[in-house]
Automatic annotation (TrEMBL):
<keyword id="KW-0732">Signal</keyword>
<dbReference type="Pfam" id="PF00135">
    <property type="entry name" value="COesterase"/>
</dbReference>
<dbReference type="InterPro" id="IPR019819">
    <property type="entry name" value="Carboxylesterase_B_CS"/>
</dbReference>
<feature type="domain" description="Carboxylesterase type B">
    <location>
        <begin position="37"/>
        <end position="532"/>
    </location>
</feature>
<protein>
    <recommendedName>
        <fullName>Carboxylesterase type B domain-containing protein</fullName>
    </recommendedName>
</protein>
<dbReference type="InterPro" id="IPR050309">
    <property type="entry name" value="Type-B_Carboxylest/Lipase"/>
</dbReference>
<feature type="signal peptide">
    <location>
        <begin position="1"/>
        <end position="21"/>
    </location>
</feature>
<dbReference type="InterPro" id="IPR029058">
    <property type="entry name" value="AB_hydrolase_fold"/>
</dbReference>
<dbReference type="InterPro" id="IPR002018">
    <property type="entry name" value="CarbesteraseB"/>
</dbReference>
């Protein structure tokens, strides 16, 4: 069950990647009334705190702003009512309930639908500021709106003349429990609907924070990027934004989880002692269940967004047809899955990763999903990913190829497929490949060195997901280029700067390569792209999406169910590893 251990990153891309404001600025003192700032909004007066960045730029922070009424279990959130008096928004809100029992439960609450707003200080500008709304990652199972540095958001984004908003949403069974999107008493995608409620609040009030409601960008990393992708194609939520930034993820692989969501939901309900044959009894049962019981029932489970409700009435390839006026910036690392395969592993196991190890992995966890065609699928996969010229004991090569398989399936192919689908509707798409790395971030002698999932964190937010390393001149150049590209796109819809004129995605798969000296190249991962398309055509089944090649929404059944089981189990391991 090796694959169980590594391919569903789709899930935890996940646990390590939530990206939000976590640490207060070292010189912040929310108790000093001299730092207070009060503004009137359409939802009531609100008190924040004014603080300088490291470079002296003044930023107004509004932390823990409620955008919804206290949520009810198995119910969509409702827009917050106008509050009386002056609401104090000077400390971070409680985090939403995760899939696993947290070490410090006092930091978590079911009353968690809050957002954080950062804006340039001062009087209302002549022109409103562009707005970027950020969605955290965590595999839809964990994470919160306070997981990275607000100081970095303030320093690198707000100081460029924009408003930054970070949001929270319900997670795991509280956000994604589903019996198929058909029963109004148990709506699916509650976590996504929470985001929609946040968008409504932002749309209503952002002008009061000097934000331009007509110039808003939705941005996310990992699972947050998947959510961005979903909202961009939704007939309901896409009306709020004109621009989208997806860092290292796509929603094009989520079709595989429909069967898994129903099966997992039934398992959770069964373990809670709920009668799954009665919707009314399910609602009563869940509402009377303790959080401790929920944590226990969710052990080794994962729930995902799914298609079939008003928010996502069809699969991505069909919904994308209505995205003509959108601008999108999206990209990928060289070996996204390296974080999950070997980066955190003991070096003692590396010499034992041989050709036979990868062959067994391909055979028992990937090829088997092709059913009666498993032998033929195994031959194609082995021939493509394993060179006959490499020795049995060349473990760096086999570690790399093992990681490449997972990266291709979970990250690269969904991203490239989304890029291609979008390009057929609109030309306003920019694609990047972040290939630069500093060798100092790897342990000495680590055999596979390449950019991986969450690799951009130090360069954007100053957050290190693996080893800490001191920036050199090349690191500083990459950080400057990446931040300038993101902020330019947020402000103008074009990431170009004096360092490089970005080229739009085209039939040559033109993309920007992020290096100290960035460049434009073509044909990103196109050999892999063609291989997986050939697999789908030969076997009339696409393992990436879990769909038959006719792309029919109703075909997410037998084979995709098998895919879901393997990905489900795999994601458990990823959570543990994270």
């Amino acid at each position: 069950m090796n694959w169980v251990k590594q391919t569903c990153y789709l899930l935890l891309f996940l646990s390590l990647n939530s990206v939000f404001c976590v640490t207060d600025s070292p010189n912040e003192s929310t108790n000093d009334p001299g730092n207070d700032v009060v503004i009137g909004t359409r939802s009531g007066y609100i008190r924040g705190v004014r603080m300088p960045t490291k470079t002296g730029f003044l930023v107004d922070y509004f932390k823990g702003v409620p955008f919804a009424e206290k949520p009810e279990r198995l119910r969509k959130s409702q827009l917050v009512h106008r509050w009386p008096g002056i609401y104090r928004a000077q400390s971070y809100p409680p985090k939403c309930i995760p899939v696993s029992r947290p070490a410090n439960s006092s930091q978590f609450s079911e009353d968690c639908l809050y957002l954080n707003i950062l804006k340039p200080s001062g009087l209302m500008p002549i022109d409103k500021y562009p707005v970027v709304v950020f969605i955290h990652g965590g595999g839809f199972q964990e994470g919160d709106g306070n997981d990275a540095s607000c100081e970095a958001f303030a320093e690198n984004f707000v100081s460029k003349g924009m408003v930054v908003v970070t949001i929270q949403y319900r997670l795991a069974m509280q956000g994604f429990l589903s019996l198929g999107c058909t029963d109004p008493l148990i709506p699916c995608n509650i976590g996504l609907w929470d985001m929609v409620t946040a968008f409504k609040f932002i749309n209503k009030t952002i002008g009061d924070f000097d934000g331009d409601v007509n110039n808003m960008t939705l941005m996310g990393h990992s699972a947050g990027a998947m959510a961005v992708s979903l909202h961009s194609i939704s007939p309901i939520s896409s009306v709020y934004f004109k621009k989208y930034i997806q860092l290292s993820a796509s929603s094009w692989s989520l079709t595989r989880y429909k069967s898994q969501n129903i099966e997992t939901t039934k398992k959770i309900l069964h373990d809670l002692g709920c009668n799954v044959s009665s919707t009314k009894q399910i609602v009563e049962c869940v509402n009377s269940t303790s959080l401790d019981s929920m944590y226990s029932a969710q052990i080794d489970t994962n729930l995902w967004p799914e298609f079939g409700d008003d928010l996502l009435p069809d699969i991505p390839d069909n919904l994308v047809r209505n995205t003509q006026n959108q601008k999108v910036l999206m990209g990928v690392m060289t070996l996204e899955s390296l974080y999950f395969t070997y980066l955190k592993s003991s070096p003692a196991i590396f010499p034992f990763i041989q050709k036979s190890t990868v062959q067994e992995y391909i055979n028992s966890t990937i090829a088997v999903q092709y059913g009666v065609n498993s032998d033929s699928a195994y031959e194609m996969l082995s021939e493509y990913y394993l060179s006959s010229n490499e020795s049995e004991n060349d473990y760096p090569y086999y570690m790399q190829q093992r990681t490449k398989i997972d990266s291709n399936m979970v990250f690269d192919m969904p991203i490239l497929r989304e890029a291609r689908a979008r390009s057929q509707i609109s030309s306003n798409l920019y694609l990047y490949h972040f290939s630069y790395f500093n060798p100092a971030e790897f342990d000495e002698g680590f055999p596979v060195q390449a950019t991986y999932h969450c690799h951009e964190f130090p360069y954007i937010w100053g957050v290190y997901k693996d080893n800490y390393f001191v920036f050199n001149d090349d690191d500083r150049k990459v950080s400057e280029f990446l931040i300038n590209s993101l902020t330019n796109f947020i402000i103008t819809g074009d990431p170009s700067s004096s360092m490089l004129k970005w080229k739009l995605y085209d039939s040559d798969v033109s993309h920007t390569v992020i290096q100290p000296k960035p460049s434009i190249e073509k044909n990103l991962f196109q050999s892999d792209f063609k291989f997986w398309n050939a697999m789908a055509q030969r076997f009339q089944f696409d393992l990436i999406s879990g769909l038959s090649v006719d792309n029919n929404f109703e075909t997410t059944t037998s084979k995709s169910s098998v895919v879901s089981v393997f990905l489900l189990l795999l994601s458990y391991i990823i959570i543990v590893l994270a």
